[in-house]
Amino acid sequence: MNQPTPSGPDLLDVLEARFNFRELRPGQRAVMDALLSGHSALAVFPTGGGKSLCYQLPALLLDGVTIVISPLIALMKDQIDFLSARGIAAVRLDSSLSADGAAEAHRDLRSGKTKLLYVAPERFVSERFMSLLKELKIAIFAVDEAHCISEWGHNFRPDYLRLADTARALGVPRVLALTATATPGVVRDVCATFGIREEHTVITGFYRPNLELRATAVSATARDRVLIERLRSRPPGSTIVYVTLQKTAEHVAEKLASAGLPARAYHAGMEAAERARVQDDWMQSDRGIVVATIAFGMGIDKPDVRYVDHYNLPKSLESYSQEIGRAGRDQAHSVVEVFVCGDDLPVLENFAYGDTPTEDALHGVVGAVLAAPQVELGLHALGTRHDVRPLVLRTALTYLELMGAVRQLTPHYAGYEVRLHRRLEEVIASVKGEPARFLEALFGHARKGRVLYAVDPAAAAAALEQPRERVVRALEYLERQGLAELKASDIRHRFVRVASTDDAGALVGELLARFARREDAEIGRVRQVIELLTSERCHAAALAAYFGERLDAACGRCTFCRAGVAVTLPEPAHAPPMPVGLDVAAFTALRAAHAGALGHPRQAARFLCGLSSPATTQAKLARDPLFGVLITRRFAEVLDWCAGLPRLTGAAAAT
Predict the structure, then answer these.
(1) Cβ(176)–Cβ(144) below 8 Å
(2) Which residues are in the Helicase C-terminal domain (predicted)?
(3) Do residues 347 and 247 touch, judged by C-beta distance below 8 A?
(4) Does residue 574 fall inside a structural domain?
């Protein structure tokens, strides 16, 4: 039943009382009105445009809990701190929570105390989490980074595709999809997936008039010097320097620090505590410089970033828009600059090529999924066995679902560890009648350790001739009553075969075609960045046009508007013929020792271009001096050379 929209003064009163804001930003009111009237909505606001408030404020006015789905842990932590400081009950559920913290979060949710729950999209594969949601009254299903739902968007995440089905299964009354980077095609995809009507799609525009867009052609050898000169010549201000690779972040930060600039590196290869220190120091400074890979800044709200420099080319116009959007959120003038260097192209293209699985790998995956009318698979083991990265594997499985070959059921856990808070006899005595006899029989089939009971729900259900669901419900009951602590393990993904054909070869062929199209699309995104930065038109207008917005006039301050001439892409440094730069004898010996990880030409090429895979990770090959030795060479060139190598006996069965 739809709720009426609160009157304007009531909405604004709550805004000021709980958030200390006196007015709404453009677009926010239209989104909130749609939600408060019981409709689903899409908010396409620029980075820093106030998307979060679109669900935070209605969450306080609607009965029930608002579920916020985001892949960004930093955003979850930042927003929960923000809400908690204002007396608003918000929690997150993720793997970093302790058992006690998770139990407390579950209690607060069931009691109705919690108004906002933050989770990652992967959380919805958990049968325990889905069971919890079915007990809750959900007010809003808020999907952040909603562009991830589009198969042909710039950051497709397979787990997002199932969110719409999940919302329908839970009977969610309203969905709010949010994104800062959606082309018109992606907007159509999101609206069709979630059933959002056109009149409830709110797009406030992508143009940021306070940002000055600059592009500077530079050679790879001169780039460090030019960056140092740029940083020294302008007024100090909070700065982000974006790079592509972790080792580049270390190199550039060291160069800047040696030049007397307050720069530090930030990347995923650092210890979590050190990353947190770097981020906190930068957040508190008005002139700190962080040299970071692209994950930095996502979900972090620092309004006074004055400069964003791209030391390396961004991988897409969507990424470029997001990253420069972290500058000038206080609406003050800010400068964003890209160093246009042709030497960056091979590394960016290689990331796209490196995700494409081999034909043999796909045969292995398809064979495993279609092995029986219904199968249960551990994805980690499946990906390791066939040397397919986790996201690529999930994408392949999602494609099989989209192709009508299989249907995925809700995954479940193959094992539970149970820590009782009382003696078993006392736990059983606390329950009466047949349930007590069931519990006694259940723990009779559990494997008892020193302090833990190990329960295999499927085996216990078969032994007791009871549904597996009853076993799981009984364990969850003990946890809810404070009688036990549960730890689930060994998640099993379940697939039902739908396709009437047994032609696995045809399915593999279609998968290969889909991955090839994705590969071409990702390479095309890199080319679009070059085309924009070297175009003979206003860069701000060209960027806005990519997202479907037409500016009335040129910005007047971008590089093209100021110079009146296009930036020219410098020719990359001449690469010597393959295999110059590679110790062939050492690589031959390494392949012979690791046939399962390097036996296939694509495996070998990935390794030489610095692209990890389950097989290289398992063999600890990323530590070898040859890993990434050809990172600056184009993947296709390296792959052609590797194709001339002998195929090794014992190469990974599915690679």
Answers:
(1) no
(2) 223-373
(3) no
(4) no
